[in-house]
Amino acid sequence: MTRTRPLVLTTLAASLLWLSGCDGNAANGTATQDTAAPQAATSDATATAAPAADAIEGLPFASTAIASFNEPWAIGFLPDGSVLITEKSGVLKHVTLPGGEAREISGVPAVANAGQGGLGDIKPHPQFAENGIVYLSYAEDGEGGRGAAVARARLDLDAGALQDVSVIWRQVPKVDGNGHYGHRIAFDGDGKLWISSGERQKFDPSQSMQSNLGKIVRLNDDGSVPDENPFAGKGEVASQVWSLGHRNPLGLAFDTQGRLWNSEMGPAGGDELNLVKRGANYGYPTVSNGDHYDGRPIPDHDTRPEFEKPAITWTPVISPSSLAFYSGTLFPEWTGNAFIGGLSGQTLVRIEIDGDSAREAERFAMGGRIRDVAQGPDGALYVIEDGKDGRLIRLAPREG
Fold this sequence. Notes:
Blueprint: H1 12-20, E1 48-49, E2 62-70, E3 72-77, E4 83-87, E5 91-95, E6 102-105, E7 119-124, H2 128-131, E8 133-142, E9 145-156, E10 161-170, E11 182-187, E12 193-197, E13 215-219, E14 241-244, E15 248-254, E16 260-265, E17 271-275, E18 312-314, E19 320-325, E20 338-342, E21 347-354, E22 357-365, E23 370-375, E24 381-385, E25 388-396
Antiparallel strand pairs: 1-2, 2-25, 3-4, 4-5, 5-6, 7-8, 8-9, 9-10, 11-12, 12-13, 13-14, 15-16, 16-17, 17-18, 19-20, 20-21, 21-22, 23-24, 24-25
EC number: 1.1.5.-
Protein name: PQQ-dependent sugar dehydrogenase
GO molecular function, one term: oxidoreductase activity
């Protein structure tokens, strides 16, 4: 049966952007939108201050480049307004704002830096001001191959070091390959730790409760499993799981009502935004609004009502890298909106939420692949570009 999918973009240029997201490995069905586009190499792995000038032409707000980094991956704001930036190679930077002065933080665990793997997300504990604890995700080597891990550590800013580092969660099992780690981190209002876990391009583990691949995981802040999790008592791994049937969930964030959403990459088409529900199964790889890269069809969500449907799907894809909800005052008209960073789409996508429904409201052309988006303590939006010399950019209303 031939399926007709709704198109978000209909131009030839949009189709080319979609194709540019793949890594050229379509023959074996493991192509990915998350491969970095070729960029000029740099031998300087340290952050460099960028001029305080308008960074991107044509935006309806001011964009100021603060600093540049070597393959940055995540933004983590601290209560004092400074920011932690991860670099995929395994480097963690502490950056002061607004000047962009950066220094390296030592003590990062060894990372497996290959493909999509490396140092990933960084999040301070909700009580960081009192306990100084941070959480970081990364790819690590081990028996059977590689997998994501999340470590907890105390950040000593005076010493410029992570101390008392301990691993509190790992993907199970470790497998070969370097794709679809997911490993975004979020905290809810009760201090519970949430982790998005990709299916590592292995498809079937998304539906297996013997594996935490292709899942959204909920833990206590020390890595233990809450008794009230939906599959608690059904096995050590299953007890971690909040939802299943995910592919490559690279965005994880709570809205202004305290509800969890995730954005994830579909295969050839079918990127998703999901409202994450307790015990829900989102269907991958049994259903998807995209198809396999080798051309094999996957039934749509509409064909299997027992699976949870996405709030939004995108074909052509935007390659969603990240997700943030806006609650600041600089852009009052955007309060409660979601923002998704696009890799192959090279966009920042604004989403309006209406109850359990969502719709794309606006798309900003950023002129580069957006790896992460976050709201700063000052109420501005911050994005970081993917790849070599990826810039941290502040987005705020224009003065006057």
